Amino acid sequence: MCQEFTSNGCRLVDVLADRPLFLVCRVYSSPLSAAPALPESGTDDGIYLYDGDAASATIVHVGSGKFIVQEDTAESLSFGLLINEIGTYSGTVPVSADLSVITVTADGDWTIAIG
Nearest CA to 71 among 105, 44, 21, 111? Predict the structure, then answer.
């Protein structure tokens, strides 16, 4: 169970789990609004903004390690895990309409074709 709330201007998450849980928290030195627009291709990790229509994204990764693509929207408790694979990947996933943050974790080249 996961509950999100705000206290003293900080966004907090309370997690209750029945097994060990691994959480990753990131602190950014600049606002996410400063992130670049989602490119059609890249190498390794990146944080990007997507501001378009709901669509299908055809995604390809050429690498041997973790490949994770996550879409974070303004919806509360929306974790938006699109892809979580090891190694080479090729597939199509849905992306949401309007502004979202796309986080890519990769050890190689990747492409994202929206449409």
Answer: 105
Share of the chain above pLDDT 90, in %: 57
- 43-114 folds as Jelly Rolls (2.60.120)
15 neighbors 25 (Cβ within 8 angstroms): no
Per domain, the residue ranges of the chain are 43-114
Which helix or strand (DSSP H or E) is residue 105 part of?
A: strand 98-105
Choose between 19 and 113: higher pLDDT. Answer: 113
d(CA 52, CA 14): 31
Kindly give, in sequence order, each residue whose CB lies less than 8 Å from that of residue 52, ignoring residues fewer than 6 positions away.
95, 97, 114
How far, in Å, CA of 93 to CA of 10, rounded? 32
Strand partners, 2: 15
